[in-house]
Specification:
With 225 residues, the protein is an alpha/beta fold. The chain has one domain (9-224): Spore Coat Polysaccharide Biosynthesis Protein SpsA, Chain A. The protein is 32% helix and 24% strand. The chain contains 8 helices and 12 strands. The chain has helices at 4-7, 40-50, 66-73, 86-95, 116-127, 172-181, 189-195, 215-224; strands at 11-16, 34-35, 38-39, 54-61, 78-81, 103-106, 132-138, 143-146, 152-156, 162-164, 168-171, 201-204. The strands form 3 sheets. Strands 1, 4, 5, 6, 7, 10, 11 and 12 form an 8-stranded mixed beta sheet that branches. Strands 2-3 form a two-stranded antiparallel ribbon. Helix 6 packs across helix 7. It is globular.
Length: 225
C-alpha cells in the first residue's frame, strides 16, 4: 500500500503563461503583471509548489522571456517558450515533463491565489484512478440563453451547471492523446479530453481560485492578499 509520504512529489504541473491577456489592458503579458509587488506567475507557481504532490513545475513563457522568468522563479522550475495559442503552450510544456511523472496538472497563472488544497484534491482524484479531473464551483447567477439578436431564448437550470477552475488534472497518457487528436483550438484541456469520449470527474474548487482577467480582478486579489 502506498503511503501519503510516498505519494509526495509524483505530480507535474504545467503553467501556460505566454498569453498577452488583453482584457487586463496594455502592458506586459498577463502572467507577468504585478500583484502586490510580485508577478501573477510568481504567486501561482509558489502555491503550486506548496502542494505536497507537486514535484515538477513547467512554465511556458512568452518568446524571449526565459531568462527574465528564470530570475523570478529560480532554477527549480523548468521553462519552455510558449506557442501561438494556449493549446500550443500546454503541448510544448507537456513535452518537457520528465518521464517519471504520470499525473499532469494544467494551471492558469491568472488563478494566482489558488490554495494548495485545491491542487491536492485534483491530484488525489487522478491518483485514485480518474483519467481527468476538474475543480468546480456551483453557478450562483441565473443564466439566460440568447440568440443572435440578444433576445432570451431559454433560462438554463443552474443546478446542473458548474464554473470550472484550474488546475485541471489528467493521467499523462490521456492528456497526450487529447493533444495528439485535437482538431479544434480550445481554451480548456478538459474539453479536449471530452472530445475523445473520456469522462471528466469534478471535485470542489475554491472561491480564492478566481481568474484574474480584468483590472478590477487585480484590485480584488490585492485586497484578498
Amino acid at each position: 500500500m502506498t503511503t501519503q509520504s510516498e505519494q509526495r512529489g509524483d505530480v507535474a504541473a504545467l503553467v501556460p503563461a505566454a498569453g498577452m491577456g488583453l482584457r487586463l489592458g496594455p502592458g506586459a503579458p498577463k502572467a507577468l503583471r504585478d500583484l502586490a509587488g510580485e508577478p501573477l506567475l510568481v504567486h501561482a507557481v509558489r502555491r503550486l509548489r506548496q502542494a505536497p504532490s507537486v514535484g515538477c513545475v513547467v512554465v511556458a513563457v512568452p518568446p524571449g522571456a526565459i531568462e527574465d522568468v528564470r530570475a523570478m522563479l529560480g532554477p527549480e522550475v523548468l521553462l519552455v517558450e510558449g506557442g501561438a495559442t494556449r493549446q500550443d503552450s500546454v503541448a510544448l510544456a507537456l513535452a518537457a515533463v520528465p518521464g517519471q511523472y504520470k499525473i499532469i496538472l494544467v494551471h492558469d497563472a491568472a488563478r494566482a491565489l489558488t490554495p494548495p488544497a485545491v491542487v491536492e484534491r485534483v491530484a488525489e482524484a487522478v491518483r485514485a484512478g480518474a483519467p481527468a479531473v476538474i475543480p468546480v464551483l456551483p453557478v450562483v447567477d441565473t443564466i439566460k440563453q440568447v440568440d443572435a439578436s440578444e433576445l432570451v431564448t431559454a433560462t438554463v437550470d443552474r443546478a446542473v451547471l458548474r464554473a470550472v477552475q484550474t488546475p485541471q488534472g489528467f493521467d499523462r497518457q490521456t492528456l497526450v492523446s487529447a493533444h495528439d487528436q485535437a482538431d479544434d483550438a480550445l481554451t480548456d484541456d478538459a474539453g479536449l479530453v471530452e472530445q475523445m469520449g473520456v469522462a471528466v470527474l469534478t471535485v470542489p474548487g475554491d472561491e480564492l481560485a478566481m481568474k484574474i482577467t480584468r483590472p478590477l480582478d487585480l484590485r480584488i486579489a490585492e485586497a484578498l492578499l
